[in-house]
Amino acid sequence: MTDSDNSTTLPSVTTGRRDQPTSNAPDHFDDADPAILLLRGWSRAEHVSHVLCRLQQRLERGVLHDAGPEAMENKVAYSIACQAEVEAATAALKLQDQLPHTQARSLLGVVAKLEIIAGADRDIDDPTDFPWPHIASVLDDLKKIAGRLPLERPERSVVQGDCQRYQALAADKFGLKKQTADLHLGQLAAIGIKSE
User: Fold this and answer.
1) How many structural domains does the chain have?
2) Per-residue pLDDT at 8
3) How far apart are CA 143 and CA 118, in angstroms?
4) Which of 39, 41, 153, 162 has the most CB atoms at less than 10 Å from its CB?
5) What's the average model confidence in pLDDT over 132-161?
6) Do the domain assignments include residue 72?
């Protein structure tokens, strides 16, 4: 029987002092951690996807009540908004797919990875089934140990820029001009995008 190799020394986990923040201090996080950067990108794409969802829902109501030339214009804008939402959701899913291939470099990086996993459970039929409450419990424990990630919503101009980009992609898929994609972008303020 051979001995296992237990000679690897694990780094100690400290809470850090105020004059020497560590990656475990609640008010410090490592921007170089790929998992944290992945979470930021994923959160942004998810937020934009939800904004575009609200836009297409608003346009859908308009399509149902409009008549004449305005109805046709709204149908085009609605189709573009639906496809733009798909584009944003696809971007979020692509980032989510990178998760198993992204190595965390800190405990907060592990928190970031679990935030993506727990955030993705919104789309699951019953998030109260195993393993989702258990993952949420582990995430809460890690946040108590490692701290929370200070993630803010992107600024209004960033969200609008992302929405325009996804609308332009959608318009291109339908063979329409970019100007059509921007047709109802002004409604974004009415559906809840606020400056942070």
Assistant:
1) 1
2) 36
3) 13
4) 39
5) 89
6) yes
Specify whether the CB–CB gap between 183 and 101 falls below 8 A. Answer: no
102 within some domain: yes
Q: Which structural domain range is residue 88 located in?
A: 34-191
pLDDT score recorded for residue 129: 81
Query: What are the backbone dihedrals phi and psi of residue 20, each rounded to the nearest 5 degrees, phi first?
Result: -135, 85
Six token digits for residue 70: 């305005």
**195 Cβ contact partners less than 8 Å away, ≥ 6 residues apart:** 155, 156
Confirm whether 149 is domain-assigned.
yes
Does a structural domain hold residue 96?
yes
pLDDT (0 to 100) of residue 30:
53
pLDDT at 83 over 90: yes
d(CA 99, CA 130): 20
Contacts of 147 (CB under 8 A, 6+ apart): 24, 25, 26, 27, 28, 29, 108, 111
> Which residues on adjacent β-strands are paired with residue 17?
20
Say if residue 13's pLDDT is above 70.
Answer: no
The predicted pLDDT at position 196 comes to 36
- 175 conformational bin, left if phi > 0, alpha if psi -120 to 50, beta if neither: left
45 burial level (CB within 10 Å; 0-12, 13-18, 19+): buried
d(CA 140, CA 96): 20
Cβ–Cβ under 8 Å, residues 52 and 63:
no
CA distance 99 to 104: 10
Instruction: Extract the tokens encoding 23.
Output: 């990656």
